Predict the structure.
Amino acid sequence: MATTATFRIRRGDAQGGRFVDYTTEVAEGMVVLDAVHRIQAEKAPDLAVRWNCKAGKCGSCSAEVNGLPKLMCMSRLSDLPLDKPVVLEPMKAFPLVKDLVTDVSWNFAVKKAIKPFKPRPPDAPDGTWRMAQSDVDRVQEFRKCIECFLCQDVCHVLRDHRLYDGFIGPRFLVHVAALEMHPLDVEDRLPALRDAHGIGYCNITKCCTKVCPEGITITDNAIIPLKERVVDRFYDPVRKLFRMIGAG
Amino acid sequence: MADYETHRHDVLVIGAGGAGLRAAIEASASGVSVGLVCKSLLGKAHTVMAEGGIAAALANVDDRDDWRVHFADTMRGGQYVNNWRMAELHAKEAPARVRELEAWGAVFDRTPDGRILQRNFGGHRYPRLAHVGDRTGLEMIRTLQDRGVHQGIDVHMECTVTRLLVDDGRVVGAFGFDRPRGRFKVFEARAVVLATGGIGRAYKITSNSWEYTGDGHALAYAAGADLMDMEFVQFHPTGMIWPPSVQGILVTESVRGEGGILTNKDGRRFMFADIPEAYKGQTADNEEEGWRYTQGDKAARRPPELLTRDHVSRCIVREIKEGRGSPHGGVYLDISWIKKRLPNAEEHIKRKLPSMYHQFKQLADIDITREPMEVGPTTHYVMGGVRVDAETQMSTVPGLFAAGECAAGINGANRLGGNSLSDLLVFGRRAGEHAARFARESGPGRIDPARLDAAAQHAVEPFARRDGHADGPYRVQHDLQEMMQDLVGIVRNEGEMRQALEGLQGLWERSRRVPVDGNREYNPGWHTALDLPNLLTASEAVTRSALERKESRGAHFREDFPDKDPASAKFNVVVRRGADGAMRVERVPIPEMPPELRQVIEEMK
């Protein structure tokens, strides 16, 4: 089924840019990233795009496809209306580098500021630990994250309110959850969650959960339990009372 | 001389997959300053794609396993042209490297008694692969990445290295540019570790991403280092073949480890028909026994689907060639059949192979719990690479180290699944340790400013090309991939490879004329133009080495020499750059194996 489709791609850098229409041949089974590669090879060799695995495992090719944050390698053309141009734009929550590529370095800086994994002493004399599968299932969900940053892109605290200095975003709340709920971890990140990490800014609109290509239940399984822990520690009136009388 | 942004590190690591990260962590832990350069963002390297697991004789699932069995399996898989010392170190050290990952936060699947679970894989006698579902590589790279950044490693993301800087025969740094802005960068270092991965982009059907253009191979070669075993390119038996846009994407061997079977269009399980002599004793001869093996029956032998990758790939090619293939030119890989054996098969498959389920559902509209997949061989891994010292991972050029896929030795003629992730950890660590030691014991090098200017000139030269008729970089790359696939692929012969050598010459010439549009800011056309010489060097090394090995062994199969030649088991093929710039090929004798290792192999036969 050799047919054509038009892709309206945002070209340009932080100084300015415009949408350019590219019409290219499309075939059965193609994904958006295939079309971008075809355009690159045939019409626009300097079209900037990040990609690696092409199988939804590395989280490089994040962009906005018809306005929705997606991995281009997992966006089938057969799921899109091809009678009108497919609009491709870079993620909006991060500074633009060029075309479909944004500067996501803020995310790497954020992770560096989160206290790393700290295990309890080993359980066995040979230096190993024992954990039940049922106890690791929960963190394994969080550790599926491929760091595509689509959740960061869609989070209004970052995208609209630009609170990069006070809020780490859903990706890193998931990361903190993976550490806090790790059966071996003994570090305490609750004060930081309340203060520097700004968990209070999240008002659980669940936009992040909806766009996660790995299907991580970000809000319900990661953020809400962390919020509960923070509340239990710092805002529970009974605990507060205990603390006041020096017994807590 | 122009003014270049200059970074000084004791150790510079090029490549941030498993081997590069592990090397950087080790060097940094020993107290030296470390810079880590990668072409992509951190955490996106191909290690992230590794699905099956990390091979290590932990003996958590079968207590008959130990380093000796793992060593013998690795040597048998590599058809005995491996560097036996590396195979020994690898088997002995892998368990500690896996436990270390757990101490750094990795969360592996568990046994019922709470230890690290291990699964079956091709060529491994016992269940040996520590894993996390089918996303082990992601777990590994994330664990190493998080460990590394908290240890104070300086990471230079999205940065391409175009030259190694050499002073008086010693590597003292590297020259490159940052990809987003195209600004040049000079890295001064007392030791450099190459961990750049493979050369898969030299082939049309490949599981490798754009990054795997043989950069480390070509950088080392240009600096005067030896490359070894380049004739051995692994074609993984199971890549996706339909729809065309997903062609080559990997389908993990764990599908077969969990009981998946290979069938042809007649529904016949063809792998039973051809079991190599060396594996007869440990391979099941009936379906019932094979199934019991995948379900953990220690008395059963493994099914023939779990023979080594080279062999399974050839059997698949034979089925297709002889007209018994699937509609899109592959064969069937079926895991859905286990519902006949397991009550909760659908759930079981989704839990054990979640990303395969996801991948087929989303990219091919196939529900693997209900129907078979169509698969065929895909270029996956190069056993060959920089020739290194087994203990230190130093190349034949002082100050230059290599680890992981871009280094040669551990895998011989064929790599066993799961031995890559363990290789990255074991030899990444060794490379880091010894590069740090070398850096401490060496003074700073002298960097010739004229060389930097020449490197800068060379990098921007493609923008000055004005040949209106010349093909663009993507076209030339595509033609190279087609040629290597057709002429130096799974089945080879003298005539076709001679033809490939001629073809390479033409491609070299075309590569020097490719024009580049636009400017230096994030320009994939420019990047692809600069990748071409690396791909061509790697392709030439593969072709010349493959011509030199006049036998069939492991991944290297020649229809004009279809048998193994005992005399050819005694050497490795090495290529290096001659004084005139032409590629020299040499046979280098394999050192005699010590009697105690020889005895291990005898006992495990």
User: Anything to note?
Assistant: Chain A touches chain B through 59 residues (CB under 8 Å). Chain A has a mean pLDDT of 95. Residues 218-234 of chain A form the longest helix (17 residues). Chain A is about 35% helix and 15% strand.
